[in-house]
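Morning run. Coffee first, then this:
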Amino acid sequence: MSIIAGSILGQAGTALGGFLPRLGGALALLLIGVLLVRLLSRLLIKMMQPLELDTLAERAGVNDVLDHAGLGRSLARVIGRAIRIALTLVVVFAGAVAARAAVPQPVA
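And here it is:
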């Protein structure tokens, strides 16, 4: 094998060796973040139930509007779902930033 080919393979190995741990970290951040968001949203919905938010929404006629929009009849669940979607977006963007940082730069 020539010196140039050995050098190129060595640089590729070094770049890959630095890339894989960062990519694994980005994937771990994404997985753990999504799981924590799901847990947090379920906890939030359970915390809103004693506040009788659904009862207040029923009295105000909000449940009918939610049902007509196809969102279900529980205001607490709709709020929990909206928070879950927003936090999931934050986690996905954080994972994307971490993955972008993991992309190896071309060697000059």
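The chain has a mean pLDDT of 82. Good start to the day.
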